[in-house]
Input
Amino acid sequence: MSNNRRVILAERPRYIVPTANCFRIENGPVPELTAGNLLVRTTWLSMDASLYARVQRVSNQAEPIKLKEVMVGPAVGFVEQSQHPDFKAGDLVSGFWGWQDYAISNGTRLRKLDFGVQKPSYALSAYGASAFGAYIALTTLAPPVAGETVVVGTALGGLGHIAGQIAKLKGCRVVGIAGSAEKCQLAVEKLGFDACVNHSDEDFAKNLMQACPKGVDVFVDTTGGKALDAVIPLLNLNSRIAACGLMATPHFGEAAFKGKYQSTMSFMYELINRRISVRGLVVFDHLRSSLAQFHTEMKAWIDSGKVKPMEDIVNGLQNAPSAFQDVFESRNRGKRLVKVAD
Amino acid sequence: MSNNRRVILAERPRYIVPTANCFRIENGPVPELTAGNLLVRTTWLSMDASLYARVQRVSNQAEPIKLKEVMVGPAVGFVEQSQHPDFKAGDLVSGFWGWQDYAISNGTRLRKLDFGVQKPSYALSAYGASAFGAYIALTTLAPPVAGETVVVGTALGGLGHIAGQIAKLKGCRVVGIAGSAEKCQLAVEKLGFDACVNHSDEDFAKNLMQACPKGVDVFVDTTGGKALDAVIPLLNLNSRIAACGLMATPHFGEAAFKGKYQSTMSFMYELINRRISVRGLVVFDHLRSSLAQFHTEMKAWIDSGKVKPMEDIVNGLQNAPSAFQDVFESRNRGKRLVKVAD
Output
C-alpha cells in the first residue's frame, strides 16, 4: 500500500466513442485520510457504456469530467481506514469513485453492500446500473405480459442479458439480437433466450421476422440503427419500445444521424398507426422510486436461479481503458467488469 | 326530392393524396324507405384528412371503401321519413353516411344532436373528430400545464385551430406553425395564438426558436417533416409529443420516407436524453372513454367564448372532391365543411 494508480482522461474522444488512447495511467502516493472521511481500496470497476457521457466536452445526461481528472464510474471496494461515523475498516462498499486503486470519500454516494448481495462483483453486474436499467425497461417503460414476444437489442450486453432473463421469467417469448453466431448460441444456451438473430447476417431482417411469428410486442432497444429498422415493421398493435441505448451510433459516426436509417416520417407513421409507445431510459430518474424494489426482486430471482448474471471479467486496472473501448465494439459477453484487486 | 346525387370513388389515389379526379358524381333516384329504417337528407359534410385511409387499397386505420361505392365520411342532416323507433321526421342527426344527398340508415352510428350543440355544423367542426382529436391530444396524449409552451403544427387546421385554443385556455404560451403570413396573422388575431411561424420562410427554424424562448414543452404534431425537425431541437426535458398526423407526407411522396428528414437515430437520442414522450392519436380509441366529457367541456368553452370554432365552408355537394383535396394542400382556414343543403 504505497502506490496509487489513477486512470486519467488524457484527451476527449474525437467522435463519441472513448477509445483506449483517451486515457493515461498515472502513479502517485496513496492519498492521506482526512478528518471525517474514509479511505477506500478498489477491487472492482464497472465498464458501463453510459459512462461515455462523462468524457464528452458537454452532455446533458451527466456532468463530464475535466481533462487530467480521474475517470469516474461505479466501483466496489473495501474501506481501509475510516474516520467516518457510518463506515468502519473492512466494510464492503460500492460507490462512484472511479478508476483508481485508492480514493478518499466523504461518504457521498457510498453504499454498504448490506442488502444481501451474493458476491461483491454482483453489486456492479446483477445489481448495477445496467441490470437496473433492464428492470426499469421491463417493469416501467415497456412492460410485457406473459405470452408476448420481447426482442432484446444486445442479447449479450450488460443490460440485454438481464432483460432477456427478466422477460423470460415473466412468461414471454424472448428473441435476442447479437453480432455473431457464437453470441447467439450463448444467448440461447446460457441465458435461455428462445431465439437469437445475428445482425451481421445478410438475411438479418428476414431471420428476425421468422423468429417472431406473432410479431413483436416489446422491444428493448439498446442500439437503434438497423436493429430498430428491422423491428419497426414487426411491431404489433399497442407494442412498446424501451429506448435504452444507441450503441449503433459509434459504429457509423456522424453518418448515423444523416439519412442512413429510417426517417422520423415512417417511424411516426407506424407509431400512430399501431399505437406504439416509446419511452427512453435514464436510470437516474428511477433510483428513488424503484431501486429498493429492484434489489429485493433481483435477489429473489438470483437465489431461485431464475436470473443468472453473466460476468465478463478483465484483470488489472491498467486494462480498464481497452476493456471500456471493447464495450463500444460489442466485444463483451455479459456485464464487462475490471477486477482491480482481491 | 327526386334526384339523389352520390359522390363515388372512381379511382384510387396514385400516392396517398385523394385528388378530386378520384371521385365522380352520379345521379339516381332517392332511395326508398324500407321497414325499420329511416331516410336522412344531408345538410353538411366534414372534410377530414383522416378519411384518406378510406380510399387507399389497404389500411389498418380504417376499412377502405370499394371502387364505385359512395365516399364515406361524417355528415349532418335531417330525418325526412322514419320507420325507426328511435328517430322521427325532423330530427337533426349526425352520422357517417357520407357524400350523398339522401341515405337510408338503420340507425347504426347515427346520433341525435341533442347534447346542446349550438348550431348544426358545429357537430362536425367544434364537436367533430378533428376537435375531439385536439382535445385528446391535450388532455390524454400530451397534456400541458399552465405556463408551458405548446407548439401546434397546423395552426389553421381542423385539429390545430382547436388545439391552440384549448392550450391557450389552459394557460399556456401557444405558438402555431402555418404555411403563409396570412394564415399566421389569422392564428394570432382570430384564434388568440401568442405567435405563429411561417414554415415557408427560409428562416423558419430560427423563427420558431425565437418564438419559443423557453423551449417547447408540448408539440401537437399534425405534419411531421420539417415542422418536427424544427421542433425536436427545442424540446425541453420531460416534453411531450402528440403525433396527430403526417400532413407533410403527401407533399413529398415517397421521398418523405427515405432520408429527407432526420433519422430515427437522432430522434431516439433526443427522446432518451430529454425524456420526451411520444404518443400517437387514433380518435376511435378514445370515443368510449372520453367523448361524453369532451362534449360537456367543449359546450362550456364555446358558451363562455373561450373556444371559437373557425369554419371554412364550401357550398355544394358537387364541390366536395375539390374541397377534400384542398385539405391535403392546406388551403383550408379552420375546419373545412361542405354545405350540401339548408
In short: Chain B touches chain A through 40 residues (CB under 8 Å). Chain B has a mean pLDDT of 92.
